[in-house]
Amino acid sequence: MKVELLSIGDELLIGQVVNTNAAYLAKQLNKIGLEVAYISVSADTKEAIIEALTMAHSRANLLLVTGGLGPTKDDVTKESLCAFYDDQLEEDPEVLAHIEFLFDTYIQTPIRPANRTQALLPKKAEVLKNEVGTASGMWFNHLGVTAIFLPGVPREMQHLMETVVLNRLKSMSSLIIRYRTLMTYGLGESAIAERIASIEEELPAELSLSYLPNFGRVRLRLLAKHTSESKVKELLAHYGDMLVSRIRDIYFGDEEDGGLAVQVLKAAKYANMTIASCESCTGGQIAAAITEIPGASSVFTAGFVPYQTAQKIGLLDIDATLISSYSTVSAEVAEAMALNTRLKTGCSVAVSTTGNAGPSKGDSDEPIGTVFIGISTEARTYAQKFMFGNLRERVIEKASLKALEMLYREIIK
After folding, report:
1. Sorting pLDDT into bands at 50, 70 and 90, what band is 224?
2. What is the domain partition of the chain in residue ranges?
3. What is the pTM of this model?
4. Residue 377 — pLDDT band, cuts 50, 70, 90?
5. CATH 3.40.50.1370 holds for 3-172
6. Which CATH code is given to the segment(s) 181-257?
7. CATH 3.30.70.100 is held by the domain 260-411
8. Which pLDDT tens digit goes with each residue over 83-114?
9. Please, which residues have CB within 8 angstroms of residue 142's CB and are 6 or more apart in sequence?
10. Is residue 220 within 8 Å of residue 181, measured between CB atoms?
């Protein structure tokens, strides 16, 4: 079974919108044992859509298409389908009644002629009623290929997948596909590969291991395929635990149980500790990563973003002579930021960041990419220096992750 995902939309091709639909669909299909072989994107033109459909039908057994089903003139997917499948549009009374109901009940504006055209659907298609929107899904069976067309609006597409499509697709595969992703921080992929080489060599055929490095971390993804759910779970548990035994000093939990910020919160709750942050160069990303998690208020007390030097002095009572002597980007200032944050908030452990993320150096002569991360507990206050490169986005992301890593290590000591 070869599966292809096709996304339609100029906004995807020009980088204006990230293709989150494809990522969602791939994950959902994997859960029911269907592996995606191809992901493609088409422009919003009849010629491009027909070309993409022709290619997909030549190499896939199952095709899922998202986008291009709106009421505006640039949405030509249905016109393209009629050309490709030698079909014609006809009005579906039930779909039209549903659109009118949505306008009368929720939208509460007069329905426009363009919206009524969304009830015009290819005659050969099985209509998939969209309960939460005006663009219907469509199901075609053509020359041995199952092609499913879904709205591009993520909420509507996901609703149709979860209420209609996935249940019908389950019968297409008897394979069970599951994965376990180990999060590691502090060691590069080649060094990790050396540690776990003997385990990797003895992995059974049903298991594969992938290295996923990004922003100072390496994720190890074990992918298991089998016809038995219990066998898949057994493989992931056994070999995953074997890997953890080799990398315990850099292992920060399974990604499926939550990211690094989740692990920090879990560890803090278990240790009955509270956290506060004081961020300069990271601009609040540490606090954002923690506070987006439900229940964070039981652990996270406060976050400061004293971006300007004057605010470090006025808001946090950092000694001006300390800054003039060592500059804002220094171990001494990072320590003072962490210490004063802990004292002001009364938390158990505080983390601070100060650095030159670029593109200019600001109030310090330290090279771009230099970041000092401070940690303060009742037992000790210290700071570490890091060099995170010269790309601003990477510097901020790496510094935020390293700060969370240092927090985690301090909490579990």
Report:
1. very high
2. 3-172, 181-257, 260-411
3. 0.76
4. very high
5. no
6. 3.30.70.2860
7. no
8. 999 999 999 999 999 999 999 898 878 899 99
9. 57, 85
10. yes
